[in-house]
From TrEMBL:
InterPro entries: CheY-like_superfamily (IPR011006), NreC/VraR/RcsB-like_REC (IPR058245), Sig_transdc_resp-reg_receiver (IPR001789), Tscrpt_reg_LuxR_C (IPR000792), WalR-like (IPR039420), WH-like_DNA-bd_sf (IPR036388)
Protein name as catalogued: Response regulator transcription factor
Domain HTH luxR-type: 126-191
Response regulatory domain location: 1-106
Taxonomic source organism: Streptomyces lonarensis
GO biological-process terms attached to the record: phosphorelay signal transduction system; regulation of DNA-templated transcription
Signal peptide: none
PROSITE patterns noted in UniProt: HTH_LUXR_2, RESPONSE_REGULATORY
Length: 207
């Protein structure tokens, strides 16, 4: 069963459209203004991949974006999170887990669900374990990877600018870097596995 049919028949989400290319996805999103977009980064078209993801996340109403991928490339998970994805879900997971991941994303959680896992996993878990960060530090880290400035992080997390500055310093120290460029390079080497065959899909938009 197609993903769009599953979402429509088994949730209360209203499907607003489906795009076969990245270019079409951006045009459709601007016209329909969906609150949730489910996107395959390997969609056809000139506009695709993390460039498409960044442009979708830059839309004025800030839609939530779930990357739905079957890629064998382990770096795609990190790249998606660095480019602003709210959640990353592997195509090989069971339908009930997919639906729970969508629901949790709508509720504002960041979900990372890889092939073979029986339940959604918080996208910040691997950061906690690898670098021994607090939940707040991990949130700051993901926003840094998405190229947020300190001022934008303060606004996003409702924190004072000095508090954000302190968190950023601790993040740099725990990862072992001194600036944002080094940080993106270091986190890009994080070992995450996402096995399975890739099958091109389209972009779904929902309200």
């Amino acid at each position: 069963m197609a993903l769009s049919s599953i979402v429509e028949s088994r949730t209360e989400i209203e499907l607003l459209g489906e795009a076969a290319s990245g270019d079409q996805a951006l045009v459709l999103a601007e016209r329909k203004r969906p609150s949730l977009i489910i996107c395959d980064l390997e969609i056809r078209g000139f506009l695709r991949g993390t460039e498409l993801l960044r442009m979708l996340k830059a839309l004025p109403w800030r839609p939530q974006v779930i990357v739905f991928s079957g890629s064998r490339d382990s770096n795609e998970v990190v790249s998606a999170l660095m480019s602003g994805a709210d959640s990353f879900v592997h195509k090989g997971i069971a339908i009930p887990e997919l639906l729970r991941a969508i629901e949790r994303t709508i509720q504002g959680e960041k979900v990372l669900l890889l092939e073979g896992e029986s339940a959604p996993k918080d996208a910040l878990d691997h950061v906690h374990r690898k670098y021994f960060m607090t939940e707040r530090e991990a949130e700051v880290l993901l926003l840094l990877l998405r190229r947020f400035s300190n001022e934008e992080i303060a606004e996003e997390l409702t924190l004072a600018r000095q508090t954000v500055k302190n968190h950023v310093s601790r993040v740099f120290r725990k990862v072992g870097v001194t600036n944002r460029r080094e940080l993106r390079c270091a986190i890009g080497d994080t070992a995450l596995t996402a096995r399975g065959r890739y099958r091109p899909q389209s972009v779904r938009m929902a309200s």
